[in-house]
């Protein structure tokens, strides 16, 4: 074949795709709720689901009969997740370090045809209080906290946007923290963690504004002080049992609609001020 002619054809096809918008079309086609059958099984993808709040989300969504894609940094060590995978149908464990963007893209490519009703950003780190003390700040830790808590949820939202758009429920939710509320700050502490969650909230508000016309609802939920490794060292009586905290957040996720998109829910359903 004449090379000049085939190059011209490729160029013409590319221009036609650009003009018709095909090049930017998501791999999974958008759909609306009316297209879904009564026996539709919603899917949730959860980050950081090998322990703590993420593990309990995976358990409770599986118990509800949802299809669960439970991701973990080190699945080989995630015995509790594998136990859930053998107990429930439609429960898949996948490796994902949320800061590994190559892996994020690979996972999105693997699930390119799968609608995801709820993209649940749960993975988070505090950075350790001793590393964020004024006059002794460890800035490499600050960068890591931002990477995990703030930047990764945006990247993962971009990567799985088409999947959420193709689903019935169309929700992106992040486990944020009241520590990110500027209005609620009265004592200095946890500079890195608090800043990362305040910035995360702005990322999510932007996403809510961006995706509203696509029918995607974006929300933030706060579990309250919950009895996980995150709070190790604090007296148990100050902490909420993890199952209760997760049940509360799931109720607020259920309540999230396109009208309330961009909301930041306290565990009791009230709205946390920025
Ligand atoms: N517990 C609370 O009182 C409380 C209050 C407000 C908000 N939150 C938020 O709730 C979320 C869950 O916290 P938790 O209490 O369940 O904490 P946790 O018990 O310490 O669990 C944190 C989870 O995040 C995962 N993770 C950390 N870095 C990751 C990365 N780079 N990639 C993938 N996963 C990663 C951990 O995986 P590994 O096991 O591999 O480390 C673990 O599964 C966090 O976003 C936290 O900020 C918690």
Descriptive labels:
274 residues, seven-stranded parallel sheet, 8 helices, 11% strand, globular
Structure description:
It is a single chain. The chain is 40% helix and 11% strand. With 274 residues, it is α/β, with parallel strands linked by helices. The protein has one domain (40-265): 3-Layer(aba) Sandwich (Rossmann fold). Helix 2 links the parallel strand 1 and strand 2. Helix 2 crosses helix 8. The longest helix has 21 residues, at 139-159. The protein is globular and about 55 Å long. Mean pLDDT is 91; it is low at 7-26. The structure holds NADP nicotinamide-adenine-dinucleotide phosphate (NAP). NADP nicotinamide-adenine-dinucleotide phosphate binds at residues 47-48, 50-54, 73-74, 97-99, 122-125, 148, 175, 177, 222-223, 225-226, 228-231.
Summarize the helices and strands and which ones pair or pack:
Blueprint: H1 3-20, E1 43-46, H2 52-63, E2 67-72, H3 79-87, E3 91-95, H4 101-110, E4 118-121, H5 139-159, H6 161-165, E5 171-175, H7 191-211, E6 217-221, H8 242-255, E7 264-265
Parallel strand pairs: 1-2, 1-4, 2-3, 4-5, 5-6, 6-7
Helix pairs in contact: 2-8, 4-5, 5-7
The protein binds NADP nicotinamide-adenine-dinucleotide phosphate (NAP).
List unreliable stretches of 5+ residues.
7-26
Bound molecules: NADP nicotinamide-adenine-dinucleotide phosphate
Mean pLDDT: 91
How much of the sequence is in beta strands? 5-15%
Number of helices: 8
Rg, Å, rounded: 20 Å
Sketch the major β-sheet: 7 strands, parallel
How many discrete structural domains?
A: 1
- Spell out the CATH superfamily: NAD(P)-binding Rossmann-like Domain
CATH C-level category: Alpha Beta
Question: Structural class of the helices, strands and pairings?
Answer: alpha/beta
The CATH architecture would be: 3-Layer(aba) Sandwich
